[in-house]
Amino acid sequence: MELRQLEYLVTVAEEQNFTRAAERLHVAQPGVSAQIRRLERELGQELLDRSGRSVRPTEVGAAVLPYARAALAAVANVRLVVDELTGLLRGRVALGTVTSHDIDLPGLLVAFHREHPAVEITLSEATSDRLLESVRAGRLDAAIVSIGAGTPPGLEVLVVDDHPIVAAVAPDHELAAHPVIALDALRARPLISLPQGSGLRARLEEACAAAGFAPQIAFEASDPDVLARLAARGLGAAILPGAFARSRSAQLRVLTIDPTALRGRLVLAWRAEGPGSSPAGRALVQHARRALTPVGGA
Description:
Number of strands: 12
Strand content: 15-25%
Number of helices: 10
Helix content: 40-55%
Radius of gyration: 27 Å
CATH architecture of the largest domain: 3-Layer(aba) Sandwich
Distance between the termini: 57 Å
CATH class of the largest domain: Alpha Beta
Largest sheet: 10 strands, mixed
């Protein structure tokens, strides 16, 4: 029995077709068929039912497949351990990010690729809630997200920004003459915000609930620049990160909310120590922690 025979068996079972399996394995289709026949002769049982339009495992084949997959996974893990100890990483890493921040993610990922060229990298964007769920579930190795004062359960974080969240209005808005407002001044006013699931929206709803009212969201969009443009046209008060809003002071009047009821923390989040993190994933987290300057850092 050879590992390649087990690999061929698993691939054919997943593809339900010898030709597609051969294409996925980058080998000739007759070779796949011959090796599986050889395995069947050695075991004395047919493992695949070839009688239908699609190839399916026989009862014996279905019983064998979990062990075949376990054997292949064990060999892959042996390679990963050896690669880790010798300084050569392979595999795949997945990083997630929210859309609004000033972190140089392309630079971070280029540097990681130079250090570990054999590692495949994927990057995805989503709301903070979805990204945190994906990190906990192991679909992402790490994510740049916006959170409140506490650390989400099951995760570790590195705080890379801690900023006030402000209201921004058009120059002729009735609140524009008041550079500092109370949170209650936003009660029953049309607000412009990121959608639910975003960290900024969660902070807004938490602060308003603590003040005894629900925010009146008139417009929402996933792009902060769209929020700023809507506010500049007089459609309401946009809730934005302070630095972002102040960078658009030519079109907007930035209103500080006092006392500072709204603050956002941008963090790098990853799973707390435990099983399931690959060597490549741990290397990505270590690299990102070195590359990102934490709040209060040098």
